[in-house]
Amino acid sequence: MIIWLNGPFGVGKTAVARALLEEKPDWALLDPEVRGAELVRKWPGVDDFQDLPEWRKAVVEDAVERVGTGDLVIPMTIWRLEYYREIMDGLKGAAEVRPFRLTASEATMRERIEHDRIEPGAVAWRLDRLETGLLAFEDTAFGDHVGTDARTPEKIAHLILVTLGRA
């Protein structure tokens, strides 16, 4: 099974992924940003690696390869519905895919982004895309909704596991 954690920047996808892996240590993590960084090195000047069809194809290939060894958690913001559908369509047949759409209020998102200690260099970039992300993830096409306001990553992970019948 592939558990896709989607949502705006700063919503807690990475923290929830870590909490899921603590609960399920036999699950694996796939970070599509690693592949994106590789591709950007090949094509300098690309503003967003998600615009590269090569990246979307690579995400599918990497996920299909990795899910063959067990359950896989993928925390990745994809707000362009056409890119999201392209990737989800590519994953069909390889494994069951359970997408979760993590959301939070604008105030919560802004605070989390501004106080990010892991990637402080990304603050301005993320804030520039905050409104777009908040609007995009109102769309239920992005998966099952999980609100993250006032919830710890561990609580969110538990809610996801209950939803999956794996708690």
Task: Name some characteristics of this structure.
five-stranded parallel beta sheet, alpha/beta, Rossmann fold, single chain, 49% helix, 5 strands, 8 helices, 167 residues, 13% strand, globular
Fold and architecture overview:
The protein is α/β, with parallel strands linked by helices. The chain has one domain (2-164): Rossmann fold. Helices cover 49% and strands 13% of the residues. It contains eight helices and five strands. The chain has helices at 13-23, 32-42, 53-67, 81-91, 106-114, 123-128, 130-136, 153-164, and strands at residues 2-6, 28-29, 72-75, 97-103, 144-147. A five-stranded parallel β-sheet has the order 2-3-1-4-5, sandwiched between helices. Helix 3 (53-67) packs parallel to helix 4 (81-91). It is globular, with a radius of gyration of 15 Å. The model has no long low-confidence stretch (mean pLDDT 93).
Number of helices: 8
Strand arrangement, largest sheet? 2-3-1-4-5
Overall spatial form: globular
Which residues sit in consecutive blocks of at least 5 with pLDDT less than 50?
A: none
Top CATH class: Alpha Beta
Can you name the CATH architecture? 3-Layer(aba) Sandwich
Q: How many distinct beta strands?
A: 5
Number of domains: 1
Assigned CATH superfamily = P-loop containing nucleotide triphosphate hydrolases
Determine the CATH topology.
Rossmann fold
How far apart the termini lie comes to 15 Å
DSSP helix fraction: 40-55%
